[in-house]
Amino acid sequence: SQQGEEDPQALSIQEGENATMNCSYKTSINNLQWYRQNSGRGLVHLILIRSNEREKHSGRLRVTLDTSKKSSSLLITASRAADTASYFCATDHIIQGAQKLVFGQGTRLTINP
Amino acid sequence: AAGVIQSPRHLIKEKRETATLKCYPIPRHDTVYWYQQGPGQDPQFLISFYEKMQSDKGSIPDRFSAQQFSDYHSELNMSSLELGDSALYFCASSLAPVDEQYFGPGTRLTVT
User: Fold this and answer.
1) DSSP output for chain A
2) What integer pLDDT is reported at residue B8 of this predicted model?
3) Closest CA to B67 of B91, B94, B103, B87
4) What distance in Å separates the CA atoms of residue A7 and residue A24, rounded to the nearest whole number?
5) Contacts of residue B42 in chain A, CB cutoff 8 Å?
6) d(Cα A23, Cα A70) in Å, to the nearest integer?
7) CA B41 – CA B110 distance, rounded (Å)
8) Is the minimum CB–CB distance between A34 and chain B shorter than 8 Å?
9) Residue B96 CB: number of other CB atoms within 10 A?
10) For chain B, what is the mean pLDDT?
11) Which chain B residues have a beta carbon less than 8 Å from that of A105?
12) Which positions ≥6 away from A52 have C-beta within 8 Å?
């Protein structure tokens, strides 16, 4: 099965509420990254958390990482309509010194005004 | 700050034609990655290059080839295009193979 599985696959909340998205992975990682993608547009890097970190904040974003459970969560506080997008987690895999990112299936977040 | 540049941004080709996508990494980045994202799908890793040598290969069809040139830009060549090749193709670059990847805006390829 796929590395970087996310849940929920879709989330719809009211503006101002908090949104939590989860990501699970299967193998050891060096870091985990979260990306946002507006429909049909490019990938926007949100935050990177390293395997030796447990929590990281960036503005309204809060990311946690639990390497024992191989899971991460992305919390967006005080959501805004502009946060409507798909959110992907990506884990890095380094093989013979070369890194590649493995993306999860993404969570489609809809913020209702 | 300079970002990853991809060209063209949009490309329409017919079945069995050939397409070439270009990627210009951030200055001083020597590692380039290519990803393919089909409609409604998550991005899938295709291939990566470090110092002009292929460093890793993912789910890239044999009809596709890529290379990194002396100025570190990369080109993805796609031949005998199929309808299923219609996707967003992202290029990313990093300062070194284990550093954070920065993504370009993508090239949307439509095969008709």
Assistant:
1) --SSEEE-SEEEEETTS-EEEEEE-SS--SEEEEEEE-TTS-EEEEEEEETT-SEEEETTEEEEEETTTTEEEEEE-S--GGG-EEEEEEEEEEETTEEEEEE---EEEEEE-
2) 97
3) B91
4) 8
5) 4, 88, 103-106
6) 8
7) 15
8) no
9) 13
10) 93
11) 41-42
12) none
Are the CB atoms for B48 and B54 separated by under 8 Å? yes
How high is the pLDDT of residue B101? 87
Q: What is the pLDDT of residue A99?
A: 76
B33 CA: distance to closest CA in chain A (Å): 8
Contact A101 B33 (CB under 8 A): yes
Of B100 and A10, the structure prediction assigns the larger pLDDT to A10
Q: How far is CA A88 from CA A72, B4, B22, B71, B96, in A?
A: 11, 20, 25, 31, 23
Is B103's CB within 8 Å of A97's CB? no
Instruction: Supply the pLDDT for residue A15.
Output: 96
Residue-level pLDDT at A40: 77
A87 pLDDT more than 90:
yes
Nearest-CA neighbor of B22 among B8, B2, B43, B1?
A: B8
Contact B48 A99 (CB under 8 A): yes
Contact by Cβ (8 Å): A86, A34: no
Stretch A51-57: mean pLDDT, rounded?
94
Of the residues A29, A34, A93, A101, the best mutation for testing chain B's interface (the one with the most B CB atoms within 10 Å of its CB) is A101
In sequence order, which residues have a C-beta less than 8 Å from that of residue A31 and are 6 or more positions away? A48, A49, A50, A51, A91, A92, B100
